[in-house]
Specification:
Layout lengths: L4 E5 L4 H12 L5 E4 L4 H9 L7 E4 L2 E4 L3 H7 L4
Parallel strand pairs: 1-2
Antiparallel strand pairs: 1-3, 3-4
Length: about 80
């Protein structure tokens, strides 16, 4: 898959860790933006209308939380 994957995450965030583990388990590379450390990343996430982490952006898909079914669909695994 050549679509860029971005995970907006934070410190001590179990759902964020679950998203990253899921992507790694299925062989997908991703960029991580930590909204606790990066003010610009936090603003990007809020500009999308998202207020809680994790947010995973896969092409046109924006997935909030750890939603396995939505991740599978966006990644073409289902």
């Amino acid at each position: 898959m050549s679509t860029e994957i971005i995970v907006y995450s934070g410190i001590h965030c179990a759902p964020c860790d679950a998203v990253k583990a899921f992507l790694k388990e299925h062989g997908f590379d991703y960029s991580e933006k930590n909204v606790n450390k990066d003010k610009e990343a936090r603003q990007e996430m809020r500009a999308m209308g998202m207020i809680s982490i994790p947010v995973t952006v896969i092409g046109d898909h924006k997935i909030q939380g750890f939603d396995k079914a939505a991740l599978q669909m966006a990644l073409g695994l289902k």
